[in-house]
Design a protein that fits this description.
Number of domains: 2
Radius of gyration: 23 Å
Structural class: alpha+beta
Order of helices and strands: HHEEEEHHHHHEHEEEEE
Strand content: 25-35%
Largest sheet: 6 strands, antiparallel
Shape: globular
Number of strands: 10
Helix content: 25-40%
């Protein structure tokens, strides 16, 4: 009787493997779903809001993909998929996985509303030095205009550098930090010195080192703050974005204060080192 039960279970396992296909770890599953060949029985490998699209069949023919495991626990995982469409078209996306009995992909994310930022980048790059000077001159004659893009050459350089950094690949954003780490560390120390724990809360953020705006704008940082429901006790060096779709660096003294990476809030969190991280929200 025991032998018969074992034989039956073995047969069922073989049938399941044949019917539904192989099981994969998150990184391998990401490569399968976004590979050039369609994954057989993809419905067996997806769950939640993700139903199998986009997939590898939706990528441009000559696209190159690179996969990096960001996080993996017993039942959750996040994989970065970098898509290189051409020398000018490149994007980082984030694939979310959950495990019940096997790993399944349940969400696809990327920094949203980048079209507006991309258009701003194109318009800023088109400006000739003469046109930049003309816009600066006009800004000085229209002092009540609240929607001036820039009022100085430094302002123009900040705006262009900021949108470029916002749209850049995660790896390049990290390299920008490492190249300017001494300056970032100095600003972080000054921000920490301004912290007042009594003023912090989850419902509002507190601006820091506003008197050093010229210094952090040299690094293409829009603002420095702490608090708020998304990043909590972290020191937030915001680069840019639209509304809640943002990218930046955070510094945290204790890892327990790090925000959780989820598909509906902080969609990417990647360690740089020494308490520093790069993040994206949606």
């Amino acid at each position: 009787m025991k032998t018969k039960i074992v034989t039956t279970l073995t047969s069922l396992l073989i049938f399941a493997a044949t019917a539904y296909g192989q099981t994969y770890e998150p990184l391998d599953l990401a490569k399968k779903i976004f590979g050039k060949e369609k994954l057989t029985n993809i419905e067996y490998h997806v769950t939640g809001e993700y139903t199998g699209r986009p997939s590898g069949q939706d990528l441009k023919k000559n696209s190159i993909t690179k996969f990096t495991l960001l996080q993996q626990t017993d039942n959750k995982a996040v994989v970065t998929m970098t898509i290189l469409k051409s020398s000018n078209e490149r994007i980082d996306t984030y694939l979310y996985f959950q495990k019940d009995t096997i790993w399944k992909m349940n969400a696809f994310r990327a920094l949203a509303m980048t079209g507006i930022i991309e258009q701003a980048k194109i318009e800023l790059e088109r400006l000739t030095p003469l046109q930049v000077d003309e816009m600066i001159t006009k800004s000085k004659t229209k002092k009540k205009d609240k929607f001036k893009m820039f009022t100085s050459r430094k302002g123009y350089e900040f705006q262009l550098g900021n949108v470029k950094l916002t749209l850049n690949l995660d790896e390049n954003i990290i390299q920008h930090f490492l190249k300017n780490q001494t300056a970032f560390e100095s600003l972080k120390n000054l921000a920490l010195a301004q912290l007042n724990p009594e003023e912090l809360g989850e419902e509002k953020s507190l601006k820091l080192i506003e008197n050093l705006k010229a210094d952090y704008q040299k690094l293409f940082i829009s603002s420095v703050s702490t608090g708020g429901y998304e990043l909590g006790k972290c020191i937030n060096f915001l680069i840019g974005g639209i509304l809640d779709n943002s990218v930046g660096y955070i510094y945290v003294e204790d890892k327990k204060d790090l925000p959780e990476m989820t598909s509906n809030r902080v969609i990417m969190l990647r360690e740089i080192g020494n308490g520093w991280y790069i993040y994206k929200t949606t």
